[in-house]
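Below is our example:
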Amino acid sequence: MQSAMENRQETLKRDETGSLISADKVNGTDIFNRNGDNLGEVESVMIDKLSGKVAYAVVTFGGFLGIGAERRALPWSVLTYDTDLGGYVVTANDDTLRQTPVYADNSNVDPEWGTRLHGHFGVPPYWQ
C-alpha cells in the first residue's frame, strides 16, 4: 500500500497541480495562432540544464500522421496557455511563424542559434 507522499508523487508525475505541469503532459499539447486555428502540437520542451528555465518548445506543424510535418523551435516566451482552448497560443504573427527555420535536430543548437531564434521573434533570450 502506498503512503500519502507516494500517492502525491505519482500524481505529480502524471498530472498538473495548480500552475505546474509535467513536461510529459506538455508534449502533445495543441498549438494555436491568435485566431484560434490549430497549427500543430508540442513535440517536446527543451530545458536549460543549468538554470532550469524552459528555453523553447519543439513544435510539429502540419502533415498527416507525422508525414510531411515540419519541426520548428519556438521560444517558450512566445507561447501563452489558453485554458479555453486547452493549448498554447503563439503570440507571433503567421508570417513570422512561416519564416521560422525548420528544426532538423539539436546539432545546430548553440548560443548563436538561440540568439538568432529569439531575435526572429523579437523576444529577449531566455538566459537574459
Remarks:
- The CA atoms of residues 33 and 94 lie 8 Å apart.
